[in-house]
C-alpha cells in the first residue's frame, strides 16, 4: 500500500474492517463496478468512502469519526506501530471514542 491516498498502512486495514463491522457487509460486497481500480487498496477506499455516512448513521458519530480517522489519517507524524507518539494518538483518536460509546450504552458514562 504505497499509494499517496492511503495515509497509514497500519490504520487503513482497521478502518476497512470497522466499515465492515458497522454495516455487516464485506468491502468486496460494497464495491461498485464503476469504481474499479488496479490497486486493491484504492478499490477498497473507493468502496468505503461512499458508505461512511451509513457508518455514522448505523454506529454513531464517535465510531464513524474513528473509522474516518483510520481511513484518512491526517497526522503528519510517523505512523509506524512502534512509534510511541503514534500509539498515543491512535489511543486518543481511535480507541477511546468507541469505548466512550460503549460506556454510554452501558449507562456508565459521567453524563446522567
Provide a compact summary of the structure.
The protein has 112 residues and is mainly α. Helix content is 60%, strand content 0%. The chain has one domain (12-106).
Overall description:
The chain is flat, with a radius of gyration of 15 Å. The longest helix has 23 residues, at 84-106. The chain is built from six helices and no strands. It has one domain (12-106). It is mostly helical. Helix 1 (12-23) runs antiparallel to helix 5, helix 4 runs antiparallel to helix 5 and helix 5 (61-71) packs antiparallel against helix 6.
Oligomer category = single chain
Large-scale geometry = flat
Gyration radius (Cα, Å) is: 15 Å
Overall helicity = 55-70%
Distance between the termini: 44 Å
* Class per helix and strand makeup: mainly alpha
User: How do the SSEs run, as a string of H and E?
Assistant: HHHHHH
The number of helical segments is: 6
Query: How is the biggest beta sheet arranged?
Result: none
Tally of distinct domains: 1
Q: Number of DSSP strands?
A: 0
- Return residue spans where pLDDT drops below 50 for at least 5 consecutive residues: none
- What is the strand content? under 5%
Mean pLDDT: 88
What are the main properties of this structure?
mainly alpha; flat; 112 residues
